[in-house]
Amino acid sequence: MEIIQIVGIGFIVTILTLIIKEQTPLFAFIITIFAGIAIFLFLIGKLSSIIQVVEQLANASNVNMVFLQTVLKIIGIAYIAEFGAQIVRDAGQESVASKIELAGKVLILFMALPIITVIIETVIGLLPT
Amino acid sequence: MSVDINAIFQIAGIGIIVAMIHTVLKQMGKEDMAHWVTLIGFVVVLFMVIRLLDELLTEIKAIFLFQ
Fold it and tell me: How far apart are the CA of A126 and the nearest CA of chain B, in angstroms?
C-alpha cells in the first residue's frame, strides 16, 4: 500500500508549507519542489518496469524500435516540461510557465516529424495513381 | 523508499530556524546580518534540492532512452 505513504507525504508537505509560508515563503516553495521530486523518484522504479514490458511487447510484435524510442522520448519531454512549468507556475510566473509549455510542444512536434513523414508516405503509397 | 523523506522535515526545520534568527537579528537592529542569514540558509537548502533534481533528471534520461 504505497499509495498511503504517498498521500501521507502529500499531507505532511502541505501542512509544513502552510506553517512556513507565514515566515519564509522561499522555503515553503523549496519544500514543494522537493516533495514533487521525491514522489516522482518514488515512482520511477515501477515506471521503468512498465516500460521494460512495453519494450518486450514491441520486440515480440516486430514493431520498429525507432517508433517506440520516439514515443518514449516524447513522454519524457512531456513529463519534464510539465514538471518545470508547474514549478514555475507555483512561483507565480504564469508567462514563463506558458513559454516552457510552448517549448515542450514544439520539441515534441520536432521529435514526431519522422513518424508523421512515414504516415504521409504510407497514405500516398495507398493512393491509386 | 528510495528517497529520504527526512530531508523534507530537515528543510522545514531549517526554514523555521532561519526565520527565528532573522527575527532576532532584526530586533537587535542588525538588518543586513539578518538578510545574509536568510540568503545563506536558502543557498544551503537549494543545494539539497539541486542534488535531488540532478538525480531525478538522470533517472528520467536513463528510463526514457535519451542518449
Answer: 33
The answer to whether B24 contacts chain A (CB < 8 Å) is: no
Domains in chain A, number = 2
Model pLDDT for residues A73-111, shown as the tens digit of each residue? 898 899 899 999 999 998 889 999 999 999 999 999 998
Minimum Cα–Cα distance from B62: chain A residue: A48
In a shared domain, residues A68 and A58 = no
Q: Are A68 and A57 within one domain?
A: no
DSSP code of residue B65: T
Residue numbers of the domain that contains A96? 64-129
- Tell me which residue has cell 530531508: B7
pLDDT in tens, A19-37: 988 888 888 889 999 998 8
pTM: 0.80
Contacts of residue B53 in chain A, CB cutoff 8 Å? 33, 37
Q: What are the cell numbers at A117?
A: 513523414
